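G., the chain you wanted modeled:
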Amino acid sequence: MKTVATLFVLVVGSIPFLAADEIRQVSQERNERYNAAIERIEPRPAEVVRALNPSKEEVCFAQILFSESKDRTHWVKLGWSVRNRVDMRFRGDDYCSVAHWRGQFSAISYKSDPSHELVMNIHKSYLDGSISILNKAVWEDAIKIGRSIMNADPVLNPIPEAVYFFHVPTAVAGNIKWPNWAKGVPADYVIRREDSKEVKWAFYKKDTVG
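Predicted structure as tokens:
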């Protein structure tokens, strides 16, 4: 487990620091290497995760990843933005205080969010075996990937100092309003759709949005 997680961070975390307008230039070869690293992280049986005995902080970190996206390829930058908050003492000084900072992660903060109950009880349902097969695999990966980012060398950070992020397609679809802090502000880092290259996630440094 430790070897696989370390390999994951070394390969994926080695993506260079790119500004938003440079992301388009990422080569197909690098994308293939990125996807290959993700695919090598295979779901583990429940016994393995129990044996690892994830800490409260690791569970909080995994809850953020699980609640924000079920696409593991997004978790590297999402996870590092969370770690940046902890390292910079921005809206929390550990993973649980960051996770539960009011209004930051809707599935954790608001009972009205459709995913709130699932996210808040995900680890309990995992341990007692009531979790669905699909969510079981995603949760196992969230624990592993979150732990790898928590323990990674800071030099591997692909989005240094980025503490804000925004799921762009959600706004485009009209489900929520574009946040005021993101209006007219170029993102420092992005994740793009592979098919259209449209921005899917935008990441901002603290100083970028004031």
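Residues 40 and 126 are 22 Å apart (CA to CA).

Shout if anything looks off.
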